[in-house]
Amino acid sequence: MINKVDEQDWPQRSRELAHLLARAGMGDRACFALLYERTSGHLLAVVLRIQRNRALAEDLLQEVYISVWKASGSFDAARSQPLTWLTHIARNRAIDSLRRAQTQPQLESTTRDDDDERPDASEAQADSAPGPLELLGLASQKRELSACMERLTAPQRQSVALAFFDGLSHAEVAAQLREPLGTVKSWVRRALATLKGCLDRAAVKDEQNKQKAT
Amino acid sequence: MDYADPKLADSLAATYVAGTLRGPARRRFESLLPSHPALQGAVQDWQGRLMPLTSALKPDAPSAAVWQRIEAALWPAAAVQPWWQKLSLWRSLSGAALAAVVGLAVLVSTPPPAQAPVVVVLQSLPGQGGQPGLAGGVVASFSGDGRALVARPLMPVSLETDRVLELWWAKAEGPPKSLGLIKADGTTVLSRGQLPGGLKGSGLDHMAVSIEPPGGSPTGKPTGPVVYYGKVQL
Asked: Which residue, of A104, A148, B36, B214, has the fewest CB within 10 Å?
């Protein structure tokens, strides 16, 4: 099951949310509750990609919204879109939780030899959720990035999708793809550089379309 | 390192936002952020590029317990309920106390019946968590046709500097509607103090005053504590 993505959806939703966030920043609990209602499903989905344990993911979501309430007064709508800001906070918290987990005693072996049963990237998720590559493909398709994305090699695409959507570190991506760490690092770096070009051009295009529409 | 170097700032921000910057390096980067505008700008640019990609994810609704835990953590004193439910809770729980309030919170109407002005006295309600309520009360006087309204606190109300008083009316059922902001220390003539259908036809059942942010409730419903309440008997 993949959510349909409207390419104009993100900025549009953000405009509505900016009002709620501004009100929350002034101490308006009702608006904060509405903000939660409108965004918690998305943020939980983001966190769950990275932290697969649902109970832990919900604990993180709780921490995320408590931070959001406390920081809502400092949100600057002129510099950032609310949904972008919220998603970043959620991802950050999820990534930090992995770091915390790593400093705790490991119950599971993390060695991955050739007999390792860890699935490869294309089937990284046992459930029906789309894989990271599929998500990247979908996201780029909706924003007409497909052609641009084709400039990435398959391993570059795979590395950046695993890192971004599933919160894998360079070392984890390397282990999963069974490639040297240095190689993976340069794949991710080049993939991000290419994406930057694509996404910036897409943003300009979105802006032009918006101006045409108004 | 020269964090003002745009290339360095850009590549660090990319790994930070993409999530591959980990461990001590990630913490160091975060501690640098507040004092390096160039890094902040680069981070914001990368957030703007990458975060919308997550819209490909299907939303996954959290369980109801998450919101309850958020509320309990943020506002432990107030078991936060919609304002109106809170009122009915008080009504049922403290029947005796409220009976007294209702008894006092009345109207004085003088003949002739058709065009008599109506005065509603709104009594102080107890504060949250057993705190004493605000002193005094608020008097609201409607002209007989319900088109003019004057309100004033019985004694000056001291509020935090960034808070105002807002006056509400409601029918026996249904959400409260704003009549406008009132002065904490004097008489206010409310231009919006008009009841649809006049005083009799409006279905006016009770009135309340809540504490709101400057400019009044942003939602059209009371958001702050209800501090004065008065039942109306027409």
From this structure: A104
Q: What is the pLDDT of residue B90?
A: 46
Instruction: Read off the pLDDT of residues A60-116 as tens digits, 9 standing for 90 and up.
Output: 999 999 999 999 988 888 888 899 999 999 999 999 988 666 554 444 334 433 333
Q: Using CB atoms, pick whichever of B50, B70, B213 lies closest to residue A62.
A: B70
Give which of A155, A1, A199, A123 is closest to B56, Cα–Cα.
A1
Q: What is the pLDDT of residues B11-21, one digit of tens each?
A: 999 999 999 99
Give, in order, the Cα–Cα distances in Å from B31 to each of A97, A125, B24, B35, B40: 18, 34, 10, 8, 11
**How far is residue A134's CA from residue A70's CA, in Å, rounded to a whole number?**
35
Residue A20 to residue A38: CA distance in whole angstroms = 10
pTM, full prediction: 0.60
Query: What SS3 state is found at B180?
Result: strand
Domains of chain A by range and CATH? 8-103 (1.10.1740.10), 130-214 (1.10.10.10)
* CA-based nearest residue to B120, from B55, B206, B20, B210: B206
Q: In sequence order, which residues have a C-beta less than 8 Å from that of residue B83 and are 6 or more positions away?
A: B176, B210, B221, B222, B223, B226
* pLDDT 10s digits, A112-132: 333 333 334 333 444 567 888
ipTM over 0.90: no
**DSSP one-letter code for B200:** H
Asked if the peptide bond before residue B113 counts as cis, ω within 30 degrees of 0, the response is: no
Interface contact A40-B48, CB threshold 8 A? no
Give the closest of A31, A66, A160 to B219, CB-based.
Answer: A31
**Contact across the interface for B69 and A62, Cβ inside 8 Å:** yes
Q: Would you call B133 exposed, middle or buried from its count of C-beta atoms within 10 A (0-12, 13-18, 19+)?
A: middle
